[in-house]
Amino acid sequence: MSLLKEAQQLLDKLKTAHKKNDWPAGKAVLGQLRIKLIQLPAVPPNTGFSSPTAQQELLLARDVYEHAVLLALKSQDEAALESSFTQLKTFYADTRSLLPAAPQEWMFAGLDLLRLLVANRIAEFHTELELIPAEGMTVPHVVSAVQLEQWLMEGAYNKVLAAGKSLPPECSFAVEQLSATVREEIASCAEASYSSLKLADAQVLMMMTSKKELEQFAEQVQ
Amino acid sequence: MVQEQAAAAGANDAAPPAKDAEQQQPKPFSVKEGMQGIITLLEKAVKTKETRLLMGRLMRQTAMVRKHMTASDLVAFINTYLPKDSNSAGFLKGYVMQDGDTAPMEDDATAAGDAGDGADAGSALGPSQLPEVELYMYLLLLVNLLDRKQFAQAREVADTAVGLLQQHNRRTLDAIGARIYFYYSWAYECTGALADVRSTLMAAHCTAGLRHDAVGQETLLNLLLRNYLAYNLYDQAEKFRSKAQKADTWRVPGQYCRYLYYLGTIRAIQLEYTEAKEVLQQASRKAPTCAHGFRVACNKWLILVRLLLGEVPERVEFSAPGMRTPLAPYFELTCAVRSGDLAQFRVVSEKFAAAFRADRTTNLITRLQYNVIRTGLRRINLAYSRISLKDVAEKLALPSAVDAEYICAKAIRDGGIDAVLDHAGGFLATRELTDLYSTNEPQVGCTVRSVKPQSPLQSAAGPCKGVCSRHGCYT
């Protein structure tokens, strides 16, 4: 079907924009793609209509939503991230019986968890966590998100900062924000628990590389 | 109920004992008499438009009949109380005959005999035109099929019953309708297709709200919550629960208990433990004494919520009658948390992993790790006035002294332990108890209490900064 071919071409454009990290171009293509998706008969919410190319259409739609999420992650656009994750999750839920299971579903679930953790939306983090079945829990993204939450709650901040360096590449958006949150937490804990602390020791505690960084941070917090 | 049993005893003394299989009981309960009582009740209720009567008495009598009912009894009732040519009669009889309990020929003979006896017993109850009676027959058959675990057939009967139910808009039908929806959902749950029922239940819930069908609304609300929670859709369940119309007082106590339980589980997952504990305790107290399984489920969640709040449940609660076996994994978990032993906690979690997964409490238990560490730290802090961080790490089974330092710092900030850390020396020291009144603490406390936003009364009274609530002095 020509509609499908057009949609496929637009998807290729989207993928190239994603590789180049070009958010404005990607956004424009995404807008056009969304209109195409509404017209395709087999894609939810049009699930009442059957079509000979149903499988391809559904796979195409899934690709589109996944790339939308990845692009939004790279561009750090909060609102777009929120809406694209919601669309993707709903799409997975609706097409669970129609499409074969995708292994990347749980990777995206892990990314969603990480996003919620970094935004400190812990209640939503836990409700999302309940939705992940046993096979999803072994995926590295989910495992890291769960472990990070555990460490943050216990207070093992050194592990969080160390893990920040070893996260999978898609999670890079989280590292900066997490480090900032963690350092603030360490500062407030240190204030309560140490009667006195040398600057050099404080630097080690905060896992900062130079004295200057520490001074900058102190001024910021003041 | 007592009257019926007396009547039954009286009747049975005269009647031949061949048919009734329940002779071994001292006061044999005649299913026939039970049914007559129910049909009389239904007809009276419809005539007097009395809806409250139905829920309680009808269900109790149904419970009695359900235990003793056989296929032949069912056929007899269908023949006696439903008009001979109705669609329902044929449909229902088809399902009763299908399971092949008794041969069809025998059924007809006993049916004729029963019908004759029914007339003889003096209450001239014949076929009834009421939709209540018709739907009640559906309900009886549903219950029967479910008791015999014939879930596929029960599903089909339930589908027809629900279709029939939706054609009527009678308040006297509410109680029976609510029960039919309940068993409809149950039949689908037992065949593993609970998600399919969601839209029907939702539509029925809306309709019940429009018609002020209180019993139906309550039952359907709980059925929908159960539906969402079965698939772990806590978010959606909470959204639905917060937006759904609920009456101020609940008509059916059983439904209220169920609602409280579902609410408690949602709150526990959302990290609101105080509310969860309150609600679960209420549910456990209000449940009837025979609802044993429900109480066990409530208690499991209640124990976990209390552990997460930092309190340790009493040993007595675990050894209540009938609770010992189901709560055994939770008892061991409580012991591990209480002793602050992380290694032991991990061993217990793995040992009973299957049981926890079946109860859907695995994620809650993972959250308990922090509580274990905090309890362990507290014990160490009480026992040692000064202890090196390396030893702390060893005792708490933490990977390294550096981790221990961070964890201690957080615990101190959160107010879990009262101590001081020394980074250079690498140890944790308990804070010495100083005389509180020699510090600034009381003054700070008084200021916080007294400088409150002024009420209109106070500002009208004059220039007064406030009253210290503790000492009654003006500041």
Overview of the structural elements:
The complex is a heterodimer of chains A (222) and B (475). Chain A is elongated, with a radius of gyration of 21 Å. Chain A has helices at residues 2-19, 23-39, 54-75, 78-94, 104-118, 122-130, 140-154, 157-165, 172-193, 199-205, 211-221. Chain A has eleven helices and no strands. In chain B, 68% of the residues lie in helices and 2% in strands. Chain B contains 24 helices and three strands. In chain B, helix 5 (87-98) runs parallel beside helix 7 (131-147), helix 13 (253-269) packs parallel to helix 15 and helix 15 packs across helix 20. Residues 1-26 and 100-124 of chain B have low confidence and may be disordered. The A-B interface holds A 122-124, 126-131, 134, 146, 150, 153-159, 185-186, 188-195, 197-198, 201, 205 and B 232-235, 238, 269-272, 357, 363, 366-367, 369-370, 373, 402-403, 405-413, 419-424.
Poorly predicted sequence stretches spanning 5 or more consecutive residues of chain A: none
Strand content of chain A: under 5%
Tally the helices of chain A: what do you get?
A: 11
What characteristic shape of chain A results from the CA principal axes? elongated
Major sheet of chain A: size, sense and barrel closure? none
Distance between the termini of chain B: 71 Å
Total strand segments of chain A: 0
**Helix and strand string of chain B, N-terminal first?**
HHHHHHHHHHHHHHHHHHHHEHHEEHH
Continuous helix count of chain B: 24
Outline the biggest β-sheet of chain B.
3 strands, antiparallel
Average residue pLDDT of chain B: 80
**What is the subunit arrangement here?**
heterodimer
For the record, give the distance between the C-alpha atoms at the N and C termini of chain A, rounded to a whole number. 62 Å
> Largest interface, per-chain counts?
A-B, 33 and 33 residues
- Please identify the structural class of chain B as seen in this structure: mainly alpha
Question: Strands of the largest sheet of chain B, in order across it?
Answer: 1-3-2
Low-confidence segments of chain B, ≥5 residues, pLDDT <50? 1-26, 100-124
